[in-house]
Amino acid sequence: MTRFLPAEDYLPSGRYELLPFRFERLDDERVLLSNMAGEALTVSSADLTTLVNGDLDRSGALFSRLRANHFLRQPEDRAALELLALKLRTRYARLRDFTSLHLFVVTLRCDHACRYCQVSRQSADRASFDMSRETADRAIDLLFRSPNQALKVEFQGGEPLLNFDLIRYVVLSITERNRQHKRDIQFVITTTLSLISDDTLAFCREHRIFLSASLDGPEDLHNANRPRPGADSHARFVAGLEKARDVLGPEAVSALMTTTAASLQRGPGIVDEYLRLGFHGIFLRHLSPYGFALKTQSYQGYDTARWLEFYEETLTYIIDLNRSGVRFTEQHAAIILRKMFSCHDPGYVDLMNPSGAGIAAIVFNYDGGVFASDESRMLMEMGDDTFRLGSVHEHGYDEIFSAPALLSALEDSFTLSAPMCADCACEPWCGADPVYHHARHGDPLGRKAESGFCQRMKGMTRIFVKAMEDPFVAALFRRWALSC
Amino acid sequence: MLTLNGKALAWGGSAERTLWKLTSNPALPVVLREKMAFLQRGNGPLPQGFGAYILPPEQQGIPPCAHWLHLPPDFAYLAEGDIISVNAGRIRTLWRQNSPHNAVLLTERCDNNCVMCSQPPKNIEDHWLVAEAMDLVRMIPPSAPVLGFTGGEPALLGQRLIDLLALTRARLPTTAVHLLSNGRGFADPAFSDAYAAIQHPDLMVGIPLYAADPAQHDYIVQARGAFDQTVRGILALKERGQRVEVRVVLHRQTIEGLPALAQFIARNLQFIDQVALMGLEVTGFARANLDQVWIDPADYRPTLENAVALLRDYQVPVRIYNHPLCLLGEMAAQYSVKSISDWKNEYVAECAACTRRQDCGGFFSSGARYRYSPSLRPFL
Questions:
Q1: How far is B338 from chain A (nearest CA, A)?
Q2: What range(s) does the Radical SAM core domain occupy (chain B) (predicted)?
Q3: Minimal CA–CA distance to B208: which of B111, B135, B282?
């Protein structure tokens, strides 16, 4: 048919323009490209050179992929810019909601003496380490000043159940005041489950309170990591878990694991323990350089490279579980993958840009001190009060949320302007961590070349990109990403 | 396949184009008869006073009115409440009261010229079509559940399309309206504004997008720059809170790029209301270009399966239309909808024993006639 023109006639001509993208060499041959919206492509080194020189063949598959994925455009492509802008706005949409997560440290007292714990105290002295009602009232005032329609109230410790009276008081008080505010409020208690009682569970059920618990792995490993009188932490966890599920339902209890040097050889065993106890996923978490973890040298128990080895081995085991038909998610991966597969930010406070400190989460310490993050108050326990933004007893909302310590930390660590972040291919999937970098390098920006945070994020990204060469894993990761 | 356009075997009366609503009720009150056409079944006596008479060929005697015609046998499906247009003996069925597939042609002009177009565009002056559609909308009962508007490219009508939709909203306030458009016109903010300002409570526009690669889309629709305008049109509509369905016709020129297109939709247009993946209708240009566009659905089964899985994972609502069920993968089959307009749905001999014809997306009658997959396997 002569009236139809062939496909070649619709190929563009004239110079193409590069859209903002960044790259990271995966190995000698391959380069990972990412655009502003976090979309990624792997190309050969030679192709990258051809691309940036403006010499790409217009009829080739690579030109078509790069144009469709907004790495380049023809000058007449207006939709590409509109879409890129839209995706970028979506990526940052959460900022407009401001603080959601409000942590109440209701006591520092704890029945455990974990080796890596940052803050807890073995003390019977209620007066010194418990939050008072007066302090809680002031914190609740601040909570309702947040413009966010969806508020998450998390009770932390110590072991928060040691001060359950205050939890009860805070929940009832917030619920009462919320009759007027009409926010969407979710309560969470972070607990080892060792002290869970029928009364506690009944109250949790009534107020739809979730439990976030800790499980480090099989009994011997868990108990070694989490000493308590009677050396029965694991047994109490299991008993508490079953009891909680009886009352609250199968999904009301989640668990977090912390990797210690003793965990490194036991990735699959740890996963099996989660599986055995009926969990559908695990969050593989590294140690943070705070509190007793530093004091007891457990942070030095392994370096980031060793943790990444552990992570990759354990992740591979989890992938193989899925291959065999068992649905099981690695939640740390899911959070990062969500940013790779979509421009919707999962709202994970530790991986946000600008940093989630203060503006996504805020911590009310037992004594009324207000901190930019949970790590910030741990730093305080080590004698560094940099990220103490004020006190609920002395400062108002405006003073706390415009504290110079907070604003300069947010600004100084902003990844789109931070050296080595601004041109890093992983930037769209990463975040700023001013508290970590302050703790390790003495300033909120840090030195990325030496940063364990940076090394870990880049390492994880590489692991994901490599794993996704297998189409099964690519589809699995997509499901994790989009259901987290 | 139903015949929607044809010629009366014999006719009498005015040669002016007139729309008639049909009734076979001889007891209709006299005051209502003047505006109705009496549809005569069999060879009985004719009641008096109707505006026109639609008669079987064997009808004897002289109709009691100047306007009449003898209906050819392929229009025997016409029934109570249907609306036809009569113009010097030419009959066009515009509305079938008992069909959920009424689509009203608004223009035959189009600024795309798709290689597989089932309704090849004509560059003719046809403004009378939209005028007729206005008359039709005034005659359709407000209880009608659904009404489609199609082209050509309706957006080329500009303000006349806006007027028609506004009239439809006023006259048929509870009727769901589906508009087919290539979306390019909506890239003009003034036009999108006017469209959104109608504030129709149940209006969806179906817009075809054939590739993530602008060059490939432009080739398929044979119009340079069409991809850019179509995507900006979709964005403009969604920005204004309008409902948009993205339509992808599955054929040789779209299948290779389908994974990339599904990915493009998921990452860039996740907020659209629905993706419709549609089997090819072997008529019009698709028949002329059959070698370029035909692909056996059995050969793209895994590709389609993956695209559906991707859209599902991104929670983009997806439907598969006009597609034989036995040629879909297990997962894609869950998204199959029986949707071919009743007047062009047919099955072939292979399907005779199939137990799932009730659930099947089926064939366009054109497919049954000109080309269909040799891989059909009836469910037994």
A1: 28
A2: 96-321
A3: B111
List the structure tokens of B15: 């040669």
List the one residue out of A395, A396, A451 whose CA is nearest residue A419: A451
pLDDT mean over A197-203: 97
Examine residue B212 and state whether it is found in any structural domain, yes or no: yes
Q: Are residues B90 and B202 in the same domain?
A: no
User: Which amino acid would we find at residue B347?
Assistant: Y
Q: Do A102 and A143 contact (CB within 8 A), yes or no?
A: yes
- DSSP assignment string, B208-261: E---SSHHHHHHHHT-TTHHHHHHHHHHHHHHTT-EEEEEEE-SHHHHTTHHHH
- Per-chain mean pLDDT for chain A: 93
Pairing of strands A369-371, A361-364: antiparallel
Burial class (CB in 10 A: 0-12, 13-18, 19+), A391: middle
Pick from A68, A74, A76: CB nearest B264: A68
CATH of A98-401 among 3.20.20.70, 3.40.50.150, 3.40.50.300, 2.40.50.100: 3.20.20.70
Whether A255 and A245 have beta carbons less than 8 Å apart is answered as: no
User: pLDDT-based confidence at A291, cuts 50/70/90?
Assistant: low
Q: Is the ipTM of this complex over 0.95?
A: no
> How far is the alpha carbon of A483 from chain B, nearest alpha carbon, in Å?
8
For residues B156 and B110, the answer to whether their CB atoms sit within 8 Å is yes
B266 and B330 in one domain? yes
Mind giving me the DSSP string for A86-122? HHHHHHTGGGGG---EEEEE-BSB-S---TT-SS-B-
Contact A10 B215 (CB under 8 A): yes
Query: Can you tell me the distance from the alpha carbon of B304 to that of B301, in angstroms, rounded to the nearest whole number?
Result: 5
| Whole-number Å distance between alpha carbons of B304 and B323 | 12
Mapped onto helix, strand or coil, the DSSP state of residue A365 is: coil
Chain B contacts in chain A segment 339-358 (CB below 8 A): 342-343
| B343 and B198 within one domain | yes
The residue ranges of every structural domain in chain A are: 15-91, 98-401
- In this complex, the residue of A37, A77, A343 whose CB is nearest that of residue B214 is A77
The CATH number for B358's domain is: 3.20.20.70
Together in a domain, B115 and B139? yes
φ/ψ of A185, rounded to 5, equals -115, 130
In a domain, B333, yes or no: yes
Cβ of residue A64 closer than 8 Å to a chain B Cβ: yes
* Chain B residues closer than 8 Å to A7 by CB: 215-216, 219
B69-105 burial, b at 16+ Cβ within 10 Å, e below that, comes to bbbeeebeebeebbbbbbeebebbbbbbbebeebbbb
Pick out chain B residues at pLDDT < 70. Answer: 341-344
A77–B228 CB contact, under 8 Å? yes
**Are B110 and B229 in a shared domain?**
yes
Q: Between A113 and A80, where is the model more confident?
A: A80
At residue B196, the 3 state secondary structure works out as helix
Say if residue B131 is in the same domain as residue B90: no
User: What pLDDT sits at residue A124?
Assistant: 65
The mean per-residue pLDDT over the stretch A185-213 comes to: 96
Q: Tally the domains of chain B.
A: 2
- The number of beta carbons lying within 10 Å of the beta carbon of residue B158 is 14
Question: Does residue B378 form part of some domain?
Answer: no
For residue B376, how many other CB atoms are within 10 A of its CB?
19
The per-residue pLDDT for range A348-366, each reduced to its tens digit, is 999 999 999 999 999 999 9
Name the residue range of residue B32's domain: 5-95
| Per-residue tokens: A386 | 């940099």
- B50 and B161, same domain (yes or no): no
* pLDDT at position A178: 98
* pLDDT over 70, % of chain A: 97
B65 and B136 assigned to the same domain = no
At what angle are helices A471-483 and A331-341 packed, to 10 degrees? 90
User: pLDDT value at position B360?
Assistant: 85
